[in-house]
Amino acid sequence: MTRHGAAIAVVATAVFASVATAQAALAPTTPRFQEIARLAQEGYGDSARAAIARILSTASPTDASYPEALYTSGAVARTGDSMRIVFAKIAVDFSASSWADKALVRLAQLEYGFSNMDKVITDITRLFEDYPGSPVLATGALWGARAAFSQQKMQMGCGWLTKGIAAVGDDLELKNQLQFAKQSCNVGPGVQYAPVVPESLRAGPPPRPAPDTTTRAPVSPPPPPPASNPGKPSAKSPARNAASPWRVQVAAISDKAVIRRLVQKIGAAGFKAYTVPGPKGLTKIQAGPFATRAAAVAGLPKVKAAAGGSPIVVPAPSP
């Protein structure tokens, strides 16, 4: 087993769990292969691998069911390296099969888990170019956009999200995640959620520090008193939480295991984690507290390094 082997398999499982309905579209469809995948999910990985190995040992690569059998072996593989090898083989040697597009998305998810963003972009670019009618296009769009945003390729990521939303169909959870990610594409006066890259640029250029420093000099000292004296009114922001007027929002998801993992990562990075009820049963995961918007923007890279994704700056909800 390589040094990343077991770890990447764990990351892959957590990543896949964050889009439960979309993951169903990536699962085997033949009953005997579904049973093998179920064995692995229930903790009987060795039995699952032995079962699919027996099938592959007697099957011919020319059999119609062979690509799905191979795909199932990748889905239950012991290590991330083994998964990569199998899914890459399907994408290359069985590119005309109905499993090649799914293999590309699996590869992208694996690479995203270990921050290989260039490889994610390569895999998703091929997905959109070679399989424009793929049923997993929306899932690929989400992971591709996240990788593109991390590389400051906003136009590419926003284009994928637009196509993903058009192709998502009835999957409400995935649609919510795509629309949430697309908030990073909104630019203009009066827009609540500005993209991460422009926010960072607005906070950093030389013309800004002078006004920002002047504002911070008088404003920085006051935040501690409001936190220790909740009864003190806030004249400037009556609708916001006086102790934490700004936060960095990491994600809006429904999977409880992924929520717990993100909360732990945020805490380990030195921030307080907040869970806020969202629409359609989603939970917003936020990090803070930040006394000013500028402070939240400055803290955004650290939050992103800890929790991943495409975090955005948001006002704290009303107390």
CATH class of the largest domain: Mainly Alpha
The succession of helices and strands, N to C, reads HHHHHHHHHHHHHHEHEEHE
User: Largest sheet, described in full?
Assistant: 4 strands, antiparallel
Averaged pLDDT: 78
Number of H- or I-type helical stretches: 16
Backbone CA Rg: 22 Å
CATH topology of the largest domain: Serine Threonine Protein Phosphatase 5, Tetratricopeptide repeat
**Could you tell me the number of beta strands?**
4
Residues in helices, as a percent range: 55-70%
Q: Which CATH architecture of the largest domain is right?
A: Alpha Horseshoe
Low-confidence stretches: 1-22, 188-222, 224-240
Shape: elongated
Q: Which strand order does the major sheet show?
A: 2-3-1-4
CATH superfamily of the largest domain: Tetratricopeptide repeat domain
Strand content: 5-15%
Computed structural class: alpha+beta
Walk me through the structure.
With 319 residues, the protein is of the alpha+beta class. It folds into two domains: 181 residues, Serine Threonine Protein Phosphatase 5, Tetratricopeptide repeat, CATH 1.25.40; 120 residues, Alpha-Beta Plaits (2-Layer Sandwich). The chain is 59% helix and 8% strand. A four-stranded antiparallel β-sheet has the order 2-3-1-4. A hairpin with a 5-residue loop joins strand 2 and strand 3. Helix 3 runs antiparallel to helix 4, helix 9 packs parallel to helix 11 and helix 12 crosses helix 16. The longest helix is centred in the C-terminal third of the chain and has 15 residues. The protein is elongated.
